[in-house]
Write a sequence for this structure.
C-alpha cells in the first residue's frame, strides 16, 4: 500500500461516521432500573443544576462596593447634651463606624510622678527599698522612680511611677451609659457595581426627598429606608441593648445583594441581616472598648483627658451575587449533563452482568473475544474464528 | 467451577482489554456533520478554554494586598495657607483616604443653652408655654429647657435648647471651596503578593530616586508614576471637579493586576481605573461629607470648633488575577475536552437514526436485540439465534 | 405502520436497555497498559481529588470575619513615660492598627510668614526681586510673599512664604526611636463565621481568665495566646526591629483558618503568619510614615504641634477555608472520575490500532462498515453483506 493509497484511505475514512454498536436487552426489570436512574440524573440536572443553581448563568460574586455611613441623634448626659461629633469615631463615615455608649473619663492627666495602682504585682510597698528604680512592670502604667509614696488620699503606700498622672485606675470617672442611644440612627448608603454586567445599584431609591431623613428601617413596614435604629439593630442581632451599653460590642451589618439580571434590574434589592461578631460572652475581655485622649495646652504644658470608650462598632459587610444568562456555561453544563447520563449504563451493565446474566446469554453477545494467538485472518477463517471465540468464552466464563 | 477456576478466570480476564465495537457509516453527509461538530468542539476548547481562558494554568484571584497612601499639596484659603495635615483624614494613610475640599466651620461652640433653629418642627414659639421642658426633638439639636427665647439677634423667638452653642445652622461659616485642590496629588503605593506562586510585585519601579516626588501619573505619558492628580482622577471618573468641591463624593481607585507568570514577571504591571462610587445624583443626600471637631480648653472650660467637611474620599480597591502553567488543570481540561467530543456522537446518532436511517439499514447493524425469552444458548443455536434476532428486529421496527 | 403501532413500538422500546457491544482483546501487553492507565487515573482521583483536595466536601472560602485589636505597653522617652494612647492610631481597634516608633515633632506652629527651606528650587534669593509674590512651588510649603528674608538664624536668605511657621524642615525635633516598643504587645481577637455551615469560631479559648492578660504568643510554647509581641512579629517577618524603628514599615498578620467540619470543630484553630507587605527597600520612599497634628488654642490663636510619625502598621488579614461532607459534590466528582476512565480506552484504542493491529485482525472485528450504497437489507442478504463489508474493510485499510 503506497503513500497515495494510504492518503486516499485516510481521506475517505476521515469522512466516515463511527457509532458504537449496541446490544438492546429486552429485559423489563433492567429497563425500569435504567430509566429510573436516567430520570434521577435528568431531574438532578434540570432541577438542581439548572433551576436551583442557575448553571445557565454567568455569575459574579465579588462586586465593587462602596459604603458611606452617618450617625444621627442627640443624647442627654447629666446636664449636658452631646451630639454625634462627640460619640462617633472615626468621623469619616466608612464601612466601620462606632458609637460610644459609655465613657470612663480621666481628666487633667499630665506627665509626672504618682503612685502606682495597688493591684499591680509588687507595687505595694512599705519603704523605698521595695521599689526598684527604673523598673517597668508589664502590668503597670509606667517606670518606677524607686520611691514608696502614699496611694493618693489613702493610708497605704505603693511604688511611685513616672507616667501620665493621675493614673486611670484611680482617677477615672465612670459616666452613666447613654441609654437614649437606643434611638440613634445610622444612615447607611451602599452602592454596588457588577463590572461584568455593567450594572450599578444602590440601596436607596431615588426621588425620596426629605422622606430619607425621617424614616427608619423596618423589614416589614419600611424596607427601603436606609436609616437603622441602634435599638432595632441590637434586637435583630438578639442582643440586649442595656448590656451592650455596659460592655460594648461589635455588630455586623450584612447587606446581601442577590441579583438575577435575566429579570428586571429593579428586582435587585438588598436584604439586611445583623449579627454580633465578637461573641464568646464568658471571656474576660469580651465586648468592645478603646481609649483615646483629647489634648489641651495650659501655660505651655500639655494636658489630656483620657477617655475609655465602650460602644457599638458596626462593621458593614457587603455580599453580592449576580447572574445573567450566558451561552457558554449553558453549553458546558448541558454537555456535562449528557455525559453524566453515561453513569446509568455503568450501573446497569454491572447489574446486567452480575445478577441477570445467568446463562451468559447477554455476555456472549456483548463481548466478542479476540485472542492474541489468533492466526492472521483470511477471508475463509472469519466464520470459524468468530464462533471459536464464543466457544472458548463459554468454557472459560465471563471475561470481566 | 471451583474457587481456583474462578480466580484463574478473573485473573486472566483482568488483563483483557475491552474496546467498544463500532459501526462505520460510510455516509458523506453524516461524516461532514460529524466532523463539523467535532471541529466546533475542538475550536471551542482550543480557542476559548485554552487560549482565552488559559485553562492550562493554575490561577489565583485573591492576592494579599497592601496599600499606603499619602497626599501632597498646599492650598490657599483667604489669608492662610493650609497643608495636608489640615485636609487629609484619616492621617494614617490606609486604603481609604479623604481630602477636605470645603468646610463649614462653627467656632467656639460650648455646652450651654441657646435658641433652637427655626426650621425644626414646633420650635417657633411666642411664650414659654409653647416649649415643653425636657423634650428632645429628633430633628432638633438638643433638649428643650422649656423657655422661649429670641432667636439670636432676630426679632422672632424659638424654644431654648441645651446643647453645644451656638447651633451650627445659625453660626456656621461657609468657607470657599479649595479649587487649588485640583492639583493636589495622592501617592499610592500598592504591594501585592500571590502566595501560591510566591511572587511579590509593587506598582513602583525601584531605583527612581527623586523622580517619584516630581512625576504625576498619566496613562499615556507616565504610566509608572504613583502620584495621581486629583484633577486627573476626577476627569477619569467623568466628574466635574468644581461640582465635587461643592458636594463632595466618593471615588474608587481600582488597581488591576492581571499577571501571567509563564511570561516574564516584569510584564506584570497594574492598570488603573477611576469611577465615582456614590452616584445617584438626584438624591438629596448625595455627595460625601462628615463632621468632626477640634477641642480647646480655656479657663478650664472646653470649647470646640465644629467642622462640617465636604470632600473627596478615595477608596483604593485592588483586584488581582495571576496564572501559571500547571500540569493538573491541563490534564483535567484535556480530559474534559476529549469526553466532550462524545457529544458529537449523540447528535449524529440522533440525525442518523431519525433522518438518514430510512430503510433501517443502519439501525439493524447498530442494534443487536437480545430478548429475555431467548433460550439458553448452546453451541448449535448461535447462528440461528443471531439471525433470528435480526429478523425479529426487522419485523418490530427500531427499538429506541 | 400506523400511529398505534408506532406508539406500541416506542413504548416497548423505551423499556429496553441498551449497552455497547464490546470486543475483548486478549493481548497481555495491551491489558497491562490499559490497567496501568486505569490505575493512574484511579489513583489520581482517589488520592489527589478525594484525599488531598477533599472533593467530597462542600467548601466555603469567604467567611465573615471580625477583628478587634488593642495594643499594650509603656515606653520611656527621655524623662517621660508614654502609654498606648499616645502611640496607637487609629484608636478604634480595627483590622489596621499602627504604633508610632519614632516621632519628628515641630512644636508651636501657627499661621504666619517665615523663610522657605533652602532645598526648594528657586527658594534661595539675594533680593526681593528673586521671589515672585503669590507663587506656590509644588515642592515648597506655601505661597511666596515676594520678600527675601534671612533663613532663620543663618546668614543666607530664602524667599518668605505664608504657611504654618516655623517650617517642619527647619524646626522639626527628631526624637530617639522607641526601642522598648519591641516588648509592646498587640492583642488580636478574631471571630469567624461560616454562614453555610453555621459555625462560629474564635481565636481565643474561653475560660482563660487573667491568663489572657499575661501570656504572649509563641508558635511552639503558647499557640492559643492572642497577645503578640512586636519583636516576635518583626522576627517572624524577618525584619530587623531597629531598622523598622527608623523607617517604619507595614507588616501583614495573616490569620489562616483551615477547618474540616467532618472532624471535631475544636480542631478548627487558626495559624498565624507574618510578612512585611511594603518591601522594596531600595525605594527612596520605603517604610511607613504619616503626619498628624495636635491643636491648641492660646489667647484665641490656634497653634499646632505637627508630628511626623514613623511606625509599624499591622494589617490583620484573615483567610478562611472550611469543608464538610456533602452528597452533591461527592456524586459530581465520582461521576467525573468514572467518565474520566474513558480516557484509558482512547489511549489504548490508539495503541491497539497503530502498533498492535498489524494484520488488521482487531480492526476488522471492531469496525463494521456500512456503506450508503448498501441495498435495503433483506433476510437473504444479511450473511453476505456482513462478510462483504469485512472484506472491503480488509482491502481498504483501517477506517479511522
Amino acid at each position: 500500500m503506497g503513500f497515495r493509497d494510504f492518503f486516499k484511505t485516510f481521506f475517505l475514512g476521515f469522512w466516515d461516521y463511527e457509532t458504537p454498536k449496541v446490544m438492546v436487552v429486552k429485559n423489563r426489570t433492567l429497563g425500569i432500573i435504567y430509566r429510573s436512574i436516567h430520570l434521577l440524573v435528568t431531574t438532578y440536572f434540570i432541577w438542581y443544576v439548572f433551576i436551583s443553581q442557575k448553571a445557565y448563568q454567568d455569575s459574579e460574586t465579588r462586586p465593587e462596593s462602596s459604603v458611606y455611613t452617618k450617625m444621627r441623634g442627640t443624647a442627654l448626659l447629666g446636664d449636658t447634651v452631646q451630639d454625634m461629633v462627640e460619640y462617633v469615631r472615626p468621623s469619616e463615615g466608612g464601612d466601620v463606624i462606632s458609637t460610644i455608649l459609655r465613657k470612663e473619663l480621666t481628666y487633667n492627666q499630665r506627665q509626672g510622678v504618682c503612685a502606682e495602682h495597688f493591684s499591680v504585682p509588687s507595687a505595694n510597698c512599705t519603704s523605698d527599698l521595695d521599689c526598684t528604680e527604673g523598673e517597668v512592670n508589664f502590668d503597670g502604667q509606667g517606670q518606677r522612680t524607686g520611691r514608696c509614696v502614699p496611694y493618693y488620699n489613702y493610708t497605704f503606700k505603693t511604688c511611685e511611677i513616672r507616667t501620665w498622672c493621675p493614673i486611670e485606675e484611680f482617677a477615672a470617672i465612670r459616666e452613666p451609659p447613654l441609654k437614649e442611644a437606643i434611638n440613634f440612627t445610622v444612615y447607611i448608603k451602599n452602592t454596588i457595581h457588577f463590572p461584568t454586567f455593567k450594572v450599578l445599584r444602590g440601596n436607596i431609591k431615588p426621588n425620596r426627598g426629605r422622606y430619607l431623613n425621617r424614616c427608619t428601617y423596618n423589614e416589614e413596614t419600611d424596607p427601603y429606608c436606609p436609616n437603622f435604629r441602634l435599638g432595632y439593630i441590637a434586637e435583630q442581632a438578639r442582643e440586649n441593648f442595656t448590656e451592650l451599653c455596659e460592655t460594648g460590642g461589635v455588630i455586623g451589618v450584612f447587606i446581601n445583594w442577590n441579583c438575577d439580571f435575566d429579570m428586571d434590574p429593579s428586582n435587585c434589592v438588598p436584604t439586611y441581616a445583623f449579627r454580633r461578631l465578637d461573641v464568646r460572652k464568658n471571656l474576660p475581655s469580651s465586648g468592645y472598648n478603646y481609649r483615646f485622649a483629647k489634648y489641651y495646652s495650659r501655660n505651655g504644658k500639655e494636658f489630656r483627658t483620657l477617655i475609655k470608650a465602650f460602644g457599638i462598632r458596626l462593621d458593614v459587610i457587603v455580599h453580592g451575587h449576580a447572574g445573567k444568562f450566558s451561552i457558554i456555561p449553558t453549553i458546558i453544563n448541558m454537555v456535562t449533563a449528557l455525559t453524566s447520563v453515561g453513569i446509568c449504563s455503568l450501573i446497569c451493565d454491572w447489574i446486567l452482568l452480575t445478577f441477570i446474566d445467568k446463562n451468559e446469554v447477554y455476555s456472549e453477545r456483548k463481548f466478542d473475544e479476540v485472542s492474541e494467538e489468533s492466526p492472521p485472518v483470511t477471508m475463509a477463517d472469519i466464520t470459524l474464528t468468530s464462533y471459536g471465540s464464543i466457544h472458548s468464552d463459554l468454557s472459560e466464563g465471563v471475561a470481566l
User: Anything to note?
Assistant: The mean pLDDT of chain A is 80.
